[in-house]
Amino acid sequence: MKTNCKKWKYLLYITAVMTAFASIPFNTQAADLQVRMMDVTDKKQEATSDKMNSADNRNTLAVTAGAADILDSKVINAGIPDADAPKAANTNNSRTNVSTKSEALTAFTKSLMVLQPQLQPESTLVMAKVNEYVNIRLEADQYSEKVGVLYKDCGGDVLEKNDEWTKIKSGDVTGWIKNQYLYFGKEAEEIAKDVGVLTAYSETETLRIRKEPSLDAGIVGLLADGQAVEAISEEGDWVKVSYEGETGFVAAEYVRVEFGIDTAESMETIKARQEAERAKAAADAAARKVQQKEAVLATASELEILAALIQCEAGGEPYEGQVAVGAVVMNRVRSGGYPNNITDVIYASGQFTPASGGRMESLILNKTTRASCIQAAQEAINGVCNVGDALHFRRNNGRDGLVIGNHVFW
Q1: C-alpha 184, offset from chain centre
Q2: Does 223 share its domain with 311?
Q3: Is residue 300 domain-shared with residue 203, that is, in the same domain?
Q4: Nearest 5 degrees, angle CA 233-CA 223-CA 377?
Q5: Number of folded domains in the chain?
Q6: Per-residue pLDDT tens over the stretch 323-382
Q7: Is residue 351 classed as helix, strand or coil in its secondary structure?
Q8: What's the rounded Cα separation, in Å, for the pair 7 and 185?
Q9: Is residue 377 domain-resident?
Q10: How far apart are CA 359 and CA 289, in angstroms?
Q11: Close Cβ partners of 104 (under 8 Å, ≥ 6 residues apart)
């Protein structure tokens, strides 16, 4: 009997316990689970925030990783209760958690913005993609008025571009060129680096060109105020230059160094040049008739100009190199893309640095041109050519072409 009473007591106790558990609302368990999830997220957010605030020099990738961890924790913990999370939460805590989540999303979005790569603006440089020259039109139409000419190795800036034509500005010429005759972007920049010229302009009364970058080094030449010489590179307080075919150094504080490429020629300039060429050709023809038995003054003048250029460009080169410089000038005279006389070829804008810097005139006026340069000029005028059809030369920088002395011809 006692045993049966005990059994009934146990059964009643178990029933009471089960009834008590059954009376607990299901949504309370769900609320406890949600509270635990949110509190765990809060802890991770606070830890992430502390790390962000304590590491000023940490890269932006860490910020993104921290924000990503926050978002990942929300997904991973959505169905798994945390054993360490508190089991009590009120409405205010829920609102705080919602606010914290919103702040986390905002921080994550900002971090993505920081990581967004900064796009470099596309280069507006264009270079002529021709063997001799391309016409520049007033409108994007092949029958439109021609406003200028862009020669080989010349360039400009893009103003507008469509599928077939590009509007450019080059020098004082603005107009349209077909895209197929232009290099763009990086390709244009590489060509510009190859054909562009660094020029050093003297900004003192007498500038000494030294053999080495030192005030104690010997002097290879002098430049007057405003005179120009080709610059090879800038080396600290000195600028390495090419002077009459030799390498020298000038103090950087006394020169202005500029990088430039040749630009287009307007139709007005071309017409004026052509008229001057015709007038000069007529004058030369008349002079030759009168001076048949005397020295041809026009020829002598052209010879002096060419010889002075050869000395400025290749005075320190072997004789073969001096003839080669003269041959390039004569090849241009024979080419339809350049003026048809020595003077205009040499003095064409942006073609030969010595012609714009006053050094040639100094040699001519003082009669100090070397005999070898005069002889090389005469041979080039007489038709001696050792560079084939080359129309260009520069200091040898490794580009393809015929190398003679310290120059490459192409």
Answers
A1: 12
A2: no
A3: no
A4: 90
A5: 3
A6: 999 999 988 888 888 888 898 889 888 788 888 778 888 888 888 999 999 999 988 888
A7: coil
A8: 95
A9: yes
A10: 33
A11: 45, 67, 70, 71
